[in-house]
Design a protein that fits this description.
Layout: E1 4-7, H1 12-25, E2 30-34, H2 42-46, E3 50-52, H3 58-67, E4 72-75, H4 81-86, H5 88-109, E5 112-114, E6 117-118, E7 129-131, H6 142-161, E8 165-166, E9 168-170, E10 172-174, H7 187-197, E11 201-203, E12 211-215, H8 216-228, E13 240-241, E14 245-247, H9 249-259, E15 265-267, H10 271-279, E16 283-284, H11 287-293, H12 301-316
Parallel strand pairs: 1-2, 1-4, 2-3, 4-5, 5-8, 6-9, 7-16, 9-13, 10-12, 11-15
Antiparallel strand pairs: 12-14
Helix pairs in contact: 1-8, 3-5, 5-6, 7-9, 7-12, 9-12
Bound molecules: serine.
The site of serine has 11 residues, from loops.
């Protein structure tokens, strides 16, 4: 049985991943690591062990890993792309100094490590359509700089020390539980909240801007499937392209409007978000993930929209 630590358990992905891991491995075997400014709540807090884990505090991580005999760390501590542009030094401190701490603890105590990369690890010089697994990665954002470094450092620890590091390049993640904070792809979450509340949505991303997106259940499955994959079959490690849907703002708007005909949207483009979005791929080629560990998403834009509207309506109305 695995003993897992989730760092960043109160965040957008961490809050749902912790619960899913508890379903897979037993509540008592998954420690929710959080920082005091982002306390755990409700079921997340009550269903299993938790501990204060600040990714910038190496000794603190080591102590928790030792206490709970952790063998697998999901390191989700990071700032999203827009916030990282306003706090580049902090983005580096959390994303890279923090990763260094996690990898060192993993090396000393024999843990496997999952630290997500992102579509943000690509830049304007990357082929934007069907972006290959191995291609140019010259991002212009600090978020992207930290994600490319994450991939390189994780591979370095695997090649040099044999630390079992694995990762995916997440697209924009859409969920109805914990909202994202300060990402370029957040509009694709916010639009559902506006639709369900009966409000007009003002879209910060220009019509025609395609980006890869993914529904949270697929993102969680990808993370766990990859960490469970047979290492003998992995040609790549850090990090796999994964994809399930690619759309531009008008497509998600029309998909919602089919179900809620009164819904309206206008555009007020945010310059920073648009610059970042324009530098990211339109859609990734995820053949390697499919071939090396059986990646196969369950949701497309239609099925995600049906589920998002149903779940949010139950919660918000
Ligand atoms: N969702 C992230 C962001 O927009 C991209 O991985 O910053």
């Amino acid at each position: 049985m695995k003993h897992v630590l989730v760092i960043g358990a109160s965040g957008q992905i961490g809050s749902e991943l912790t619960m899913k891991l508890r379903d897979c491995y037993g509540n008592e075997n998954v420690v929710a690591g959080y920082i005091p400014t982002a306390e755990l709540k409700g079921e997340l807090k009550e269903s299993g062990p938790s501990a204060v884990v600040d990714v910038t505090d190496a000794a603190g991580i080591a102590a928790v890993v030792r206490e709970y005999q952790v063998d697998t760390i999901y390191n989700l501590a990071a700032l999203l792309s827009v916030v990282a542009e306003s706090k580049p030094k902090l983005a580096w401190k959390i994303g890279i100094d923090g990763l260094w701490n996690v990898l060192e603890v993993a090396r000393e105590q024999g843990c496997a490590v999952f630290t997500p990369s992102s579509i943000g690890s690509f830049g304007v010089s990357t082929p934007h359509v069907k972006t290959p697994q191995d291609t140019i990665q010259r991002p212009c954002s600090m978020y992207g700089v930290t994600k490319v470094t994450t991939e390189l450092l994780s591979d370095y620890y695997f090649n040099r020390y044999g630390v079992d590091t694995r990762s995916v390049r997440f697209p924009g993640i859409i969920s109805n539980v914990t909202p994202p904070g300060g990402g370029t792809t957040d509009y694709a979450v916010d639009i559902y909240y506006s639709a369900v509340k009966g409000e007009k949505f003002v879209c910060p991303i220009a019509r025609g801007t395609f980006m890869d997106m993914m529904y949270m259940p697929d993102a969680l499955n990808a993370s766990i499937m990859l960490m469970e994959a047979d290492p003998a079959k992995l040609v790549h490690r850090n990090a796999f392209n994964i994809a399930s849907m690619s759309f531009e703002p008008d497509m998600i708007f029309q998909t919602i409007k089919k179900r809620l005909p009164a819904f309206e949207m206008s555009y007020e483009v945010d310059h920073l978000k648009q610059c970042i979005a324009d530098s990211w791929p339109d859609c990734l080629d995820d053949t390697c993930a499919r071939e090396e560990w059986g990646w196969n998403p369950a949701y497309d834009l239609e099925s995600m929209t049906t589920d998002m509207l149903e779940k949010l309506s139950m919660r918000l109305r």
